[in-house]
Amino acid sequence: MPELPEVEAVVRELRPRLVGRRLGASVVRWTPTLGGLSARAFGRAIDGALVQAVERRAKWIVIDLGRERAGAGSVCVHLRMTGRLQVDPKDEPPGRWERARVALDDGRTLRFIDPRKFGRVCFVRDRATLLGELGPEPLGEEFTLSWFTHALRAHRRLLKPLLLDQTLLAGLGNIYVDEALHRAGLHPLARSERLGPARVSALRDAIRAVLAAAIERDGSGVEIFARTPEGRPGSDGERFHVYGRAGQPCRRCGTPIRRSLVGQRSTFICPRCQPGKRL
DNA sequence: AGCTACTCCTGGTAGC
DNA sequence: TGCTACCAGGAGTAGC
Question: Which ranges constitute the DSSP H helices of chain A?
């Protein structure tokens, strides 16, 4: 499932294909994709708008339509579990899972494909409507050690659910939280307010290292989710240390990785590298 | 305030 | 072969 690194990869592929393009007519095959807006209102809002920029904020893809009267606002896309955004020739057949498409002025078309229908393509005048509550970017300057120390103390929550909370820190999902916790040697059920300075620092470093490494490799390795907008699969799938590796030996100490549920989510730990409560 | 359970969806897979 | 049952999960919400 796309998390911050996969979304970053998509944005990097889309940017040169979209910036400077003018949007045209849209076709929406599954209206809930628009997040409440009618297909007609969506079409009216974006038709004729010029794409000024394509950016990432947390796991959102933000297509900035600038401030022209015709297209003031942004199209914000969330891939959720299985969403994909790709630019194809305009005669590309929709296939079974296309939920929406928007014509481009270069003869191509921007397609949103999403088998499980969880993804969203939202038009908003003010992006803060969707992005305003998000916490800082884990790779950004705001994610300082002192801020993180304070945030972990203030919230008094279990570590994993807290790290998945996008209003605290924006961009981590199930995979990279498990990877970061393993790298930092921390248990997912540890209390956030009880982490000492060394562990807070190790966690912050681990989060950044895990995300940066994933961005470098472009994609999560889970093929269906890791495809770039051109449909190429992401690179190697051997990168994870714990995620999806139940029963397999920890790459650091050889102890079998254990799977359990934390807050309804699959959670993978090495019981030796991440001591704490039993899962 | 934080925690749990539930909801949205459907492709894939395990079991019979 | 063809069925059923269940799982995956980001984020929002309700209820305690």
Answer: 4-18, 39-46, 128-131, 145-155, 159-164, 174-184, 197-217, 223-226
Amino acid found at A25: A
Positions of strand B less than 7 angstroms from a protein CB: 1-11
Q: Count CA within 13 A, CB hemisphere, residue A49.
A: 27
Note the pLDDT of residue A68. Answer: 65
Q: Å from A257 (CA) to C12 (C1')?
A: 31
Q: Would you place residue A119 in the very low, low, confident or very high pLDDT band (cuts 50, 70, 90)?
A: very high
- CA distance to A3, A196, A205, A246, A266, per residue, from A175 (Å): 8, 24, 17, 13, 9
A85 strand-pairing partners = A112
Backbone angles phi, psi at A200, to 5 degrees: -60, -45
A77 touches strand C (CB under 7 A): no
Q: Tell me the average pLDDT across A37-66.
A: 95
